[in-house]
Every structure is written in structure tokens, then in C-alpha cells.
Amino acid sequence: MKHNQLENILKEFHRDAYLWARQCCGFEDDLAKDVLQQSYLKILEGKATLRYPEKVKSWLFSIIRFTAIDELRKNGKWVSLEENYDSPEVEELNQETDFQKLLMKLSPMQREVLLMVFYHEMTIAQAAEILQIGLGTARTHYERGKKKLKELIELQTQAANGK
Amino acid sequence: MENEDKLIKAFFEDLKEQDRNIPIPEFPEVKVKSFPYWIPMGVAASLIIGAFLIFQRPEIPEPPADVIIISLQENEDHEQEFRIEEKAYIDIWESSTSSLLTEF
Predict the structure, then answer these.
(1) What CATH number does the domain containing A69 carry?
(2) A71: Cβ contacts below 8 Å, ≥ 6 apart
């Protein structure tokens, strides 16, 4: 694919790509900008090639995710993707919905699957492709993530009503 | 299950609504490092020129054409006769008028 075509694709998905980069970087804006720049460089320099043009969004999201993981590892901020992820305590929930805080209490895999499905309107299969895991595993993260998030939202609602 | 999905969907819809206020940075100017093609081209050109110079055979000078020496000599019977010799070079050359210098 030619440089101009790739650039047009990137421009088309730029907003989604930035929001996804931000979500992959724990909602840090500056880090997200760096990650996005590096991801675009990888693509335009031909280090990442698009094999299936129909899967362009999954491809772009996958590159952004792996670039973000690399950056987080460099900064010592990467949390293991293990299933038995210990979420932080729920004590800090405020009255107002702090979406980012709630999402950060999920495991990275759960958070990413839910964001891809509910926020970026992808299928679980696409999420599995991006995360490079099996469909069954992605479904498990999806179900557990939903359950956990529901609990967190309810806790927050109770906290808000109690005050 | 449906209630759970509704709650989650509503959560993400609210998050999207909140994210509309996030300033999206402009599409970055990505400067792709172009590969310096002149380097391999220069190397290739140098190799070609080098090979041309190394394998070029030195020109071998052609041998001179045979020289035919026709001389007038006196034989045993004291008669003059022509003597014809073919040589690649002249080892002795005598001027045709040298006799004038010695005999005169």
C-alpha cells in the first residue's frame, strides 16, 4: 500500500486511534500522544504492514496496543496480564462517576475487551484478534469484566446515595 | 443479564459523552526517514569501475612487420648479386653510401 493511502487511513481513524492510545496508556494524554506518533511511524516506515485491508481498524488498534505496552514497560508502569489480577481497593470512589478510575480497577485484559466492545463497537472476535488471545479467553475476560464493572458501578451508586 | 448489559452500555455511553470534550491532537507530521539510495548506488558504481580496471587486459604491442633486407654483395666469383633476407628487426644497418666514407 502506498504512503499516501496509509496516511489517509490513519487520518480517517485518528480520533479513535488517539482515544484508544489514551485508554491503553492508563488515560495519560502525553504518553498517548507519544505512543500514537510511534505507531504511525511504524506504519509509514513499513515496519508494520497491513495484510488484510478489511481489518484495518483491528490492525491499527493492535499496533497502538503493543506500542503502548512497550512504552509502559520502559516506564515501569506495565501491569501483568495475568488472570489473577488483584484490583486496587474500592475505597476512593466519589459521588460523581469517575469512569477512568472505575475502568482502572479492572484487569488490563478485562478493561481492554470491554472498551473495544462497548466503546469502540467492535466484536469480541475482533477484540480477541487485537489482544492475540483465543475467542474463548476473550469471552471469559468480557464476562468477568462486565460482572466486575457492574459491581463497581453499584458500589459507586451506593456511595453517592449514602452521602 | 440484560440489566447488566444495559448498565454497562449506559456507563460507556456516558464515558463517550465525557470524552467528546477531550481535545484530539492534530494528526502529527510524521517524517519518514527515506532510505539513502545514493549509498548503495555509489558502492555499486565503484565496484563496477574497480572490476573494469582490474580485469582490463593491457594492450600487447604488435610486433613490427618483417623487414626485408636487400643487399648487393660480391660472391666468390667476384660477381655482384642481390641477397634478400627477411628479419623481424635490423641488427646491423649499413648506410648505402658508407663505402664512400671508407673507400674514398
Answers:
(1) 1.10.1740
(2) A25, A31, A34, A35, A38
